[in-house]
Recover the amino acids of this structure.
DNA sequence: TGTTCATATTGATATTCTTCGATATCAAAC
DNA sequence: GTTTGATATCGAAGAATATCAATATGAACA
Protein backbone atom coordinates (compact mmCIF):
# COMPACT_ATOMS: atom_id res chain seq x y z
CA UNK A 1 0.00 0.00 0.00
CA UNK A 2 0.95 3.55 -0.61
CA UNK A 3 1.66 5.66 2.46
CA UNK A 4 0.58 9.26 2.86
CA UNK A 5 4.04 10.58 2.09
CA UNK A 6 3.94 8.94 -1.30
CA UNK A 7 0.42 10.17 -1.90
CA UNK A 8 1.41 13.73 -1.01
CA UNK A 9 4.56 13.50 -3.06
CA UNK A 10 2.40 12.58 -6.03
CA UNK A 11 0.45 15.82 -5.70
CA UNK A 12 3.56 17.93 -5.93
CA UNK A 13 5.06 15.70 -8.60
CA UNK A 14 2.18 16.76 -10.80
CA UNK A 15 3.53 20.32 -10.57
CA UNK A 16 7.13 19.38 -11.11
CA UNK A 17 7.16 19.47 -14.90
CA UNK A 18 7.34 22.66 -16.93
CA UNK A 19 4.92 21.47 -19.60
CA UNK A 20 2.33 20.72 -16.95
CA UNK A 21 2.86 24.16 -15.41
CA UNK A 22 2.25 25.69 -18.82
CA UNK A 23 -0.94 23.69 -19.17
CA UNK A 24 -2.13 24.84 -15.76
CA UNK A 25 -1.40 28.42 -16.71
CA UNK A 26 -3.52 28.05 -19.84
CA UNK A 27 -6.38 26.73 -17.75
CA UNK A 28 -6.23 29.75 -15.45
CA UNK A 29 -8.09 31.73 -18.10
CA UNK A 30 -10.80 29.12 -18.40
CA UNK A 31 -11.74 25.78 -19.83
CA UNK A 32 -9.76 24.58 -22.82
CA UNK A 33 -10.12 21.72 -25.23
CA UNK A 34 -7.25 19.32 -25.74
CA UNK A 35 -6.57 20.37 -29.30
CA UNK A 36 -6.15 23.97 -28.26
CA UNK A 37 -3.67 23.08 -25.53
CA UNK A 38 -1.86 20.87 -27.99
CA UNK A 39 -1.63 23.73 -30.46
CA UNK A 40 0.09 25.93 -27.91
CA UNK A 41 2.65 23.43 -26.66
CA UNK A 42 5.52 21.87 -28.49
CA UNK A 43 4.71 18.26 -27.68
CA UNK A 44 3.02 15.33 -29.35
CA UNK A 45 -0.57 14.30 -28.85
CA UNK A 46 0.19 11.20 -26.82
CA UNK A 47 2.47 13.21 -24.58
CA UNK A 48 -0.27 15.72 -23.90
CA UNK A 49 -2.67 12.92 -23.08
CA UNK A 50 -0.15 11.57 -20.59
CA UNK A 51 0.27 14.94 -18.89
CA UNK A 52 -3.48 15.51 -18.72
CA UNK A 53 -3.90 12.16 -17.05
CA UNK A 54 -1.37 13.09 -14.37
CA UNK A 55 -3.01 16.47 -13.82
CA UNK A 56 -6.45 14.90 -13.52
CA UNK A 57 -5.35 12.07 -11.25
CA UNK A 58 -3.60 14.51 -8.94
CA UNK A 59 -6.82 16.50 -8.62
CA UNK A 60 -5.70 19.80 -10.09
CA UNK A 61 -7.67 19.42 -13.28
CA UNK A 62 -11.14 18.23 -14.19
CA UNK A 63 -12.13 16.90 -17.55
CA UNK A 64 -15.35 16.75 -19.47
CA UNK A 65 -16.05 14.95 -22.69
CA UNK A 66 -18.21 16.54 -25.34
CA UNK A 67 -18.54 14.29 -28.31
CA UNK A 68 -15.06 13.52 -29.47
CA UNK A 69 -13.56 16.50 -27.70
CA UNK A 70 -12.15 16.65 -24.22
CA UNK A 71 -12.39 19.85 -22.24
CA UNK A 72 -10.14 20.55 -19.29
CA UNK A 73 -10.42 23.06 -16.47
CA UNK A 74 -8.81 23.80 -13.14
CA UNK A 75 -10.49 22.07 -10.22
CA UNK A 76 -11.24 24.52 -7.46
CA UNK A 77 -11.41 21.75 -4.87
CA UNK A 78 -8.24 20.06 -6.05
CA UNK A 79 -6.27 23.29 -6.04
CA UNK A 80 -7.61 24.19 -2.61
CA UNK A 81 -6.66 20.77 -1.30
CA UNK A 82 -3.12 21.20 -2.58
CA UNK A 83 -2.82 24.61 -0.96
CA UNK A 84 -4.07 23.19 2.33
CA UNK A 85 -1.60 20.35 2.05
CA UNK A 86 1.32 22.67 1.38
CA UNK A 87 0.26 24.84 4.28
CA UNK A 88 -0.01 21.84 6.56
CA UNK A 89 3.37 20.36 5.77
CA UNK A 90 5.27 23.65 6.02
CA UNK A 91 3.77 25.03 9.20
CA UNK A 92 6.20 25.14 12.09
CA UNK A 93 4.65 23.64 15.19
CA UNK A 94 4.72 25.87 18.21
CA UNK A 95 5.05 23.54 21.19
CA UNK A 96 8.47 22.81 20.07
CA UNK A 97 10.51 20.85 22.60
CA UNK A 98 14.07 21.53 21.52
CA UNK A 99 15.04 18.49 23.61
CA UNK A 100 18.50 18.17 22.10
CA UNK A 101 19.67 15.52 19.74
CA UNK A 102 19.72 12.03 21.17
CA UNK A 103 22.93 11.41 19.32
CA UNK A 104 24.74 13.94 21.47
CA UNK A 105 25.20 16.85 19.09
CA UNK B 1 18.88 29.82 -19.68
CA UNK B 2 16.24 28.38 -17.46
CA UNK B 3 12.73 29.75 -17.93
CA UNK B 4 10.34 30.47 -15.10
CA UNK B 5 8.37 27.30 -15.69
CA UNK B 6 11.46 25.23 -15.07
CA UNK B 7 12.34 27.29 -12.03
CA UNK B 8 8.87 26.85 -10.60
CA UNK B 9 8.85 23.17 -11.44
CA UNK B 10 12.04 22.84 -9.42
CA UNK B 11 10.31 24.19 -6.33
CA UNK B 12 7.60 21.55 -6.49
CA UNK B 13 10.06 18.87 -7.49
CA UNK B 14 11.67 19.36 -4.11
CA UNK B 15 8.38 18.24 -2.55
CA UNK B 16 7.86 15.32 -4.88
CA UNK B 17 9.85 12.73 -2.94
CA UNK B 18 8.52 10.93 0.12
CA UNK B 19 11.84 10.98 1.96
CA UNK B 20 12.03 14.73 1.56
CA UNK B 21 8.47 15.10 2.82
CA UNK B 22 9.44 13.08 5.89
CA UNK B 23 12.41 15.35 6.45
CA UNK B 24 10.22 18.44 6.19
CA UNK B 25 7.81 16.92 8.68
CA UNK B 26 10.64 16.39 11.14
CA UNK B 27 11.66 20.01 10.78
CA UNK B 28 8.15 21.19 11.59
CA UNK B 29 8.90 20.56 15.24
CA UNK B 30 12.08 22.58 15.10
CA UNK B 31 15.68 22.60 14.07
CA UNK B 32 17.36 19.21 13.65
CA UNK B 33 20.90 18.09 13.13
CA UNK B 34 21.75 15.87 10.20
CA UNK B 35 22.63 12.87 12.30
CA UNK B 36 19.26 12.96 13.98
CA UNK B 37 17.41 13.09 10.68
CA UNK B 38 19.61 10.30 9.42
CA UNK B 39 18.72 8.19 12.44
CA UNK B 40 15.03 8.48 11.72
CA UNK B 41 15.16 7.67 8.02
CA UNK B 42 16.09 4.48 6.31
CA UNK B 43 18.64 5.95 3.92
CA UNK B 44 22.39 6.28 3.70
CA UNK B 45 24.36 9.35 4.74
CA UNK B 46 25.23 10.44 1.21
CA UNK B 47 21.61 10.12 0.20
CA UNK B 48 20.54 12.36 3.05
CA UNK B 49 23.14 14.92 2.07
CA UNK B 50 21.76 14.88 -1.45
CA UNK B 51 18.19 15.43 -0.26
CA UNK B 52 19.20 18.22 2.08
CA UNK B 53 20.95 19.97 -0.77
CA UNK B 54 17.79 19.86 -2.85
CA UNK B 55 15.67 21.14 0.05
CA UNK B 56 18.07 23.99 0.72
CA UNK B 57 18.47 24.98 -2.91
CA UNK B 58 14.72 25.06 -3.37
CA UNK B 59 14.39 27.43 -0.42
CA UNK B 60 12.31 25.33 1.92
CA UNK B 61 15.14 24.63 4.34
CA UNK B 62 17.92 26.64 5.87
CA UNK B 63 21.13 25.19 7.19
CA UNK B 64 23.62 26.27 9.81
CA UNK B 65 26.97 24.74 10.56
CA UNK B 66 28.12 24.36 14.13
CA UNK B 67 31.51 22.77 14.27
CA UNK B 68 31.26 19.54 12.43
CA UNK B 69 27.50 19.37 12.74
CA UNK B 70 24.92 20.69 10.33
CA UNK B 71 21.60 21.95 11.63
CA UNK B 72 18.56 22.26 9.41
CA UNK B 73 15.32 24.13 9.87
CA UNK B 74 12.31 25.18 7.83
CA UNK B 75 12.70 28.53 6.12
CA UNK B 76 9.71 30.72 6.82
CA UNK B 77 10.42 32.85 3.75
CA UNK B 78 10.99 29.89 1.48
CA UNK B 79 7.80 28.18 2.56
CA UNK B 80 5.83 31.40 2.19
CA UNK B 81 7.23 31.90 -1.28
CA UNK B 82 6.15 28.41 -2.29
CA UNK B 83 2.66 29.00 -0.94
CA UNK B 84 2.40 32.25 -2.86
CA UNK B 85 3.60 30.52 -5.98
CA UNK B 86 1.08 27.72 -5.66
CA UNK B 87 -1.64 30.25 -5.06
CA UNK B 88 -0.59 32.27 -8.07
CA UNK B 89 -0.48 29.40 -10.53
CA UNK B 90 -3.80 27.88 -9.45
CA UNK B 91 -5.94 31.00 -9.28
CA UNK B 92 -8.59 31.16 -11.95
CA UNK B 93 -8.55 34.51 -13.70
CA UNK B 94 -11.86 36.29 -13.77
CA UNK B 95 -11.93 38.27 -17.03
CA UNK B 96 -12.23 35.09 -18.81
CA UNK B 97 -13.05 35.45 -22.47
CA UNK B 98 -14.38 32.04 -23.42
CA UNK B 99 -13.73 33.01 -27.03
CA UNK B 100 -14.08 29.48 -28.36
CA UNK B 101 -11.34 27.28 -29.64
CA UNK B 102 -9.62 28.52 -32.75
CA UNK B 103 -9.45 24.95 -33.97
CA UNK B 104 -13.21 24.84 -34.31
CA UNK B 105 -14.22 22.65 -31.39
C1' DT C 1 50.70 17.72 12.97
C1' DG C 2 47.95 13.79 12.82
C1' DT C 3 43.64 11.50 14.13
C1' DT C 4 38.83 11.29 14.40
C1' DC C 5 34.29 12.28 13.31
C1' DA C 6 30.44 14.57 10.57
C1' DT C 7 29.16 15.94 6.22
C1' DA C 8 29.85 16.62 1.07
C1' DT C 9 31.11 14.93 -3.34
C1' DT C 10 31.99 11.43 -6.85
C1' DG C 11 31.00 7.53 -9.75
C1' DA C 12 28.09 3.76 -10.66
C1' DT C 13 23.60 1.48 -10.93
C1' DA C 14 18.63 0.80 -10.77
C1' DT C 15 14.44 3.03 -11.17
C1' DT C 16 11.32 6.45 -12.68
C1' DC C 17 9.85 9.90 -15.94
C1' DT C 18 9.27 12.23 -20.41
C1' DT C 19 8.69 11.69 -24.94
C1' DC C 20 7.62 9.66 -29.30
C1' DG C 21 5.50 6.69 -33.00
C1' DA C 22 2.20 3.24 -33.65
C1' DT C 23 -2.02 1.43 -32.55
C1' DA C 24 -6.51 1.15 -30.13
C1' DT C 25 -10.76 3.21 -28.57
C1' DC C 26 -14.59 6.04 -28.92
C1' DA C 27 -17.96 9.23 -30.84
C1' DA C 28 -19.95 11.50 -34.76
C1' DA C 29 -21.20 11.67 -39.62
C1' DC C 30 -21.87 9.64 -43.83
C1' DG D 1 -22.02 -0.46 -40.85
C1' DT D 2 -17.95 2.22 -42.50
C1' DT D 3 -15.26 6.06 -42.40
C1' DT D 4 -13.31 10.01 -40.17
C1' DG D 5 -11.44 12.61 -36.49
C1' DA D 6 -10.08 13.20 -31.48
C1' DT D 7 -8.17 11.19 -27.60
C1' DA D 8 -6.14 7.17 -24.98
C1' DT D 9 -3.02 3.40 -24.48
C1' DC D 10 1.13 0.68 -25.58
C1' DG D 11 6.01 -0.20 -26.19
C1' DA D 12 10.45 1.60 -26.62
C1' DA D 13 14.32 5.05 -26.18
C1' DG D 14 16.62 8.55 -23.79
C1' DA D 15 16.98 11.68 -19.81
C1' DA D 16 16.60 12.55 -15.08
C1' DT D 17 16.49 10.91 -10.33
C1' DA D 18 17.37 8.15 -6.04
C1' DT D 19 20.40 5.44 -4.01
C1' DC D 20 24.66 3.38 -2.47
C1' DA D 21 29.74 2.64 -1.52
C1' DA D 22 33.92 4.89 -1.66
C1' DT D 23 36.42 8.90 -1.17
C1' DA D 24 37.21 13.84 -0.15
C1' DT D 25 36.62 17.81 2.73
C1' DG D 26 36.45 20.30 6.91
C1' DA D 27 36.36 20.95 11.85
C1' DA D 28 37.65 19.67 16.49
C1' DC D 29 40.88 17.64 19.51
C1' DA D 30 44.79 14.88 20.95
Amino acid sequence: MENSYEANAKVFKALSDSNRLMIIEMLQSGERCACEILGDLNIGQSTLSHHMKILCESGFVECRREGKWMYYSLSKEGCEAAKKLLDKITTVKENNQKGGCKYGC
Summary: Chain A touches chain B through 49 residues (CB under 8 Å). The helical segments of chain A are 4-13, 18-28, 34-40, 45-57, 76-90. Residues 13, 17, 19, 43-44, 46-47, 50-51, 65, 67-69, 105 of chain A lie near DNA strand C (CB under 10 Å from a C1'). DSSP finds five helices and three strands in chain A.
